[in-house]
Every structure is written in structure tokens, then in C-alpha cells.
Amino acid sequence: MSAIRPAAVVVLAAGEGTRMKSATPKVLHELCGRTLVGHVLAAARELEPENLVVVVGHAREQVTAHLGATDPGVRTAVQAEQNGTGHAVRMALEELGTVDGTVVVVCGDTPLLRGETLRALAANHSADGNAVTVLTAEVPDATGYGRIVRDGASGAVTAIVEHKDASDSQRAIREINSGVFAFDGQLLADALGKVRTDNSQGEEYLTDVLGILREAGHRVGASVAGDHREIAGINNRVQLSEARRILNDRLLTEAMLAGVTVIDPATTWIDVDVTFGQDAIVHPGTQLHGTTHIGEGAEVGPNTRLTDTTVEAGARVDNTVAVSSHIGPGASVGPFAYLRPGTRLGAKGKIGTYVETKNATIGEGTKVPHLSYVGDATIGDYTNIGAASVFVNYDGKDKHHTTVGSHCRTGSDNMFVAPVTVGDGSYTAAGSVITKDVPPGSLAVARGQQRNIEGWVARKRPGSAAAKAAETASRQGESEN
Q1: What residue ranges in 162-296 does DSSP mark as E strands?
Q2: Residues 6+ apart with CB under 8 A from 81
Q3: Angle, alpha carbons 424-428-433 (nearest 5°)
Q4: SS3 419
Q5: Which run of H or E residues covers position 157?
Q6: Phi, psi for 274 (deg, rounded to 5)
Q7: What is d(CA 74, CA 68) in angstroms, rounded to the nearest whole number?
Q8: What is the reported pLDDT for 202?
Q9: Which listed residue, of 268, 363, 452, 460, carries a Cα 20 to 30 Å from 233's Cα?
Q10: Catalytic (active-site) positions
Q11: With b meaning 16 or more CB within 10 Å and e meaning fewer, what string describes 18-52?
């Protein structure tokens, strides 16, 4: 099918969406890492239109700001009062000026619509020489939808009949109107000027253009979507959840067909910009968000949430939360680790159980095995950080940096009070509070001398279980001696 580049794509996104019951405009609700309108824009961009304009109305400042951040090339047209779909398209054409060529109109709340379906619509519109082509779909239950009535001989669309106005034979039709159209731009502009408002809502309906063009002798055609779920609009949070499930299943199917093992698709959730290397494995209960990438042969999950995080080839991430982090090839993370933004773990490194990191570069082969916090730090290669270590980076006002060199061995229960540097090949004793730089190859000991006060429990806690146990132990010791 040859590529047909439309003169314009118009996205209708002016409605309030009251059934969402939300302070957030309907088209800005998200699923799988994009807003509803963001999904529609992505599909529209696959057509490579000469112009892409979004009609905004309700909460237009918020919607326009989102569009500017998402797709700076998008133009906006304002529908100050929501006077119907025909009026919305008229506002778009006023923004665009004279349009010579195909104009595709789509709804901003149809996140499942594919670019390939829009390409087929534009191609069929051009090939058939239609004045307007409506995207349709055959659905299992057409109750409530406008039916597509076709000419039996030519297959041309003769009418779109609303359910309440349909005869019994028309209600048996399963082909429905999607609200997505391809128009001849000049004919559309002319017909919009003839749309009347003598209806129960007093609005300008875009569907009236089809009748106007047909009465003028122009051909009205249809292009059938391959999957009726693509045209589903989102009007409430139940439908949003249903669409999220459908889109997630679509994304996981694509990943699995490309060579990714997803153990349990029902409990695995990914965003549209997540990517995988071949033979990656995703365990149950895993969520992959943003621009996360799982490298070749890497294994993530179960019960893991990664956002904007890279997991390189052969790494293993288990029961972990990570945000804006980089996990090197062959590295190991978790279980129960928290990698905050700026964490970079080198090849074959380890961030273990109950470890939290932030703005930390941890070198190749270096291990932070358990019960530690590493913040604002650089750790060299092949170093081991003892259990229960804390990089004390905050003085109550400013953050400070700690550097630990390569091939170091730090003791358990260490405090590194930044700014401080531990040189290459150094050791630190367990229980030390490191406040001064440690020269390379040194042993740092920074702890108070132990003092035992004998008989303290008997004097201060007489009659307690501890006092009784101590007394028994003392007697046993005396008898053994």
C-alpha cells in the first residue's frame, strides 16, 4: 500500500470528560507511559502529515503545555465553547487556513488507535476517490453505536444511522462509526459552512458533513479497522483500565515475539518506550516504566519496578525499585534494594539486600552486599563495603561527596562522614566512624575503647530476668572453676 501523506491531521481534544470525575483533563490521563492524547499524536505522526493540529478547549492551558512538552511541532486551535465536533473541526481549519489535500480527523481519547490503521484509511480514501471516508469497525455488540448503512451494489456508505433511529434491520448491522474520518480538505471546509444546529443539542455535528457531501453527489466511503478495540474511546476510569490491559497485552506480545520471555503476562506491566534485548527474562509482578531497557539475557523480577533504568546484558535484578539508574553487565541487584536517581553500578558489581543508593557510582566488581546506604559517593573497582555501612552525605544544609578507592575492604557498621576519601587498597575497622581521609594501603580505626562495668545489672536492675540469668551464669562459672 503506497504511503499517502495527508495535508493535515486534526485531533479533537477539547472536551471536559466529566465522567472521568477528575481534576485532570480527560486527554491527559495516562496509560502505559503516555497520555491518551499522546498515544493519538504518536499514531498521527506515523502518517507524516504536513500539519498536525490539536483542538483544545477545557483546561486548554494545561493541555497546551503538555502538547508543547510532548510534541513541540503540534499546532493548537481553541474551541472556547464546546459546540460540537463540526464546530471543533471548523476551528482547526480556521487555524490552518486553506487546506488542499486530505484532512484526517481523529479523537483525542482513542489511545489504542494504530498508525497503520490511519495509513490504511488515508490510502483507501485516496484510492477510492472519496470526498469523505469513515473509519469503521465490526463489533460483537453494536448496541448504542451509529450503524454504517452501505449501498448493496457499490459498497459506498449511504448513511450513518444512530441506534435510537435505526430500524430492526439496521440494528442488525454490526459495522459502526468510529468518529475517525478522512476528508477532501476543500470539500470539508465548504460543507462545514452548511452544517445546521437544529438538533436536540444545538451543536454542529461533523457526521452531518457526510450527508451534505452525499447529497451534493460526492462519494462517501469506509475503511474497516482490523480490530474493533482500536476505535474505543475512553470516557471513564473503567474504560481506561480496560484500554490499559489491552495495550499492555499488545506490548508484551510484541516483546515475546521478538525473543523476550515473560513468565506471567497477567502480572507484568510495561510502558510503550520500554525496550528489550533478545533472551531477556521478566518474572511475575514486574513493572517497567519510562525508557527502561532490559539488555540481552538480563533477568528482572519478580516484584520489581524499574523506571528510566538500563539493565545491561546478563544482569540480574530481583525484588528491586530503581529510578534513573544504570546497572552494568553481569551485575546483581537485590533482593529488596532501592536504587535512586544517579546510581551507576559497574560490570559484575553487586547491590544487595536492604541497600539504598543515590547519586552513586559503584565500580566494576564492587559489592555493597547488605543493610547499607550509599549516597553521593564514588566507589572504585573490586571493593567490598561492609554490612550496615552509611555514607553520611548531609550536614543539615548541604550534600557532600565520599570517595572510596579500588580494592578496599571496609568493616561492618562503618560511618563515612563526607567529605572524606578512602585511598586505594585501604581497610577500615568494624564500628569505625571515618571523618578523616585514609591514605592508600592503610587500616583506619576510629572507635572508642571498650569498657566493661561489672555488676551493673545486679545493681541497677535487681530482680529482673537479666539479673537472674547473670547470677545463674556466674554461679555456673564459679562451679566450673
Answers
A1: 175-184, 220-224, 261-262, 269-270, 275-276, 281-282, 287-289, 293-294
A2: 57
A3: 120
A4: coil
A5: strand 157-161
A6: -75, 140
A7: 7
A8: 78
A9: 268
A10: 370
A11: eebeeeebbbbbebbbbbbbbbbbbbbbebebebb
Side-chain-side CA neighbours of 450 within 13 Å: the count stands at 4
Task: Name 181's bridge partners.
Answer: 105, 134
The 10 Å CB-count burial string (b at 16+, else e) for 157-184 is bebbbeeeebeeebeebbbbbbbbbbbb
The cell numbers describing 82, all together, are: 464546546
What is the C-alpha to C-alpha distance for residues 148 and 348, in angstroms, rounded to an integer? 61
Give the model's pLDDT for residue 383: 98
Q: How many CB atoms lie within 10 A of CB 307?
A: 18
Residue 394: CB atoms within 10 A of its CB come to 12
pLDDT average, residue stretch 249-259:
98
Residue whose C-alpha cell reads 540480574 in the numeric block: 316
Contact 178, 134 (CB under 8 A): yes
Check pLDDT > 70 for residue 154.
yes
Cα 163 off chain centre by: 37
Average pLDDT, the chain: 94
pLDDT in tens, 435-444: 999 999 999 9
At residue 3, the pLDDT reads: 56
**pTM assigned to the model:** 0.91
In the predicted structure, residue 196 carries a pLDDT above the cut 90: no
d(CA 138, CA 226): 9
pLDDT tens for each residue of 440-460? 999 999 998 889 999 999 999
